[in-house]
Amino acid sequence: MVAMFQASPTPAVSSIPHHIAIVMDGNGRWATRRYLPRVAGHKKGVDALRACVRHCGERGVKILTVFAFSSENWNRPPEEVSGLMELLAVALSREVPHLKSEGVRIQFIGDRSALSDKVRNGLVQAEAATAANTRLVFNICFNYGGRWDIAQAAAKLAARGEPITEQSLDRAMSLAPQPDPDLLIRTGGEKRISNFLLWQAAYSELYFSDKLWPEFDAAALDAAIADYAQRERRFGKTSQQVQPATKKVA
Fold this sequence. Notes:
Layout: E1 19-23, H1 27-32, H2 38-59, E2 63-70, H3 78-101, E3 104-109, H4 117-130, E4 136-144, H5 146-160, H6 166-172, E5 183-186, E6 205-208, H7 218-229, H8 239-242
């Protein structure tokens, strides 16, 4: 990942989302259409993710959260699961030094209890190596599920004897204290969020792209950001309440 944040044209939009979340769907289909093993699609997806991190940094996005491996993905063919675990180990050794040098802070979100010691150690080392970086927070949701996230937050509060309220749950969620995603993108043509950030995405703007994840490039990201810039985010209020008052000219 050379010159990750080398300058490039930015989209002509009036609003850049502070926090973008992405369901990276379509790696397997990309490979199948080319008569390749599904793991080849995941490898190509790592290339697309590397570029997406760079593009987000160039455009001023401060937090990028991606769905890398869901708690339901364990049900996939064993050879695909083992390939994904091996791909994670290779990606960590190859990419972390570049991410560190470019000011990216890596955080892994999800249930680590089912992961091997080797994988867990790799996650800890990547987080420690980049902990001081502040340019872009890169959250990788691995063995993650939105329902798991809510359940672990409730269990954490119960263990501490704290009342379970919206406010206390929010503080106990896995992404806390980071702000909720402004924009949630899903690639691959499906129109669902598939148990991703169920709590945090309550007021996220949703954007669905027909592009398979390995094909999601800078232009596709710019299209999503441009679409987001046209949205009116009301959070339960009326348009009149969120629009700035027009000054009368004497």
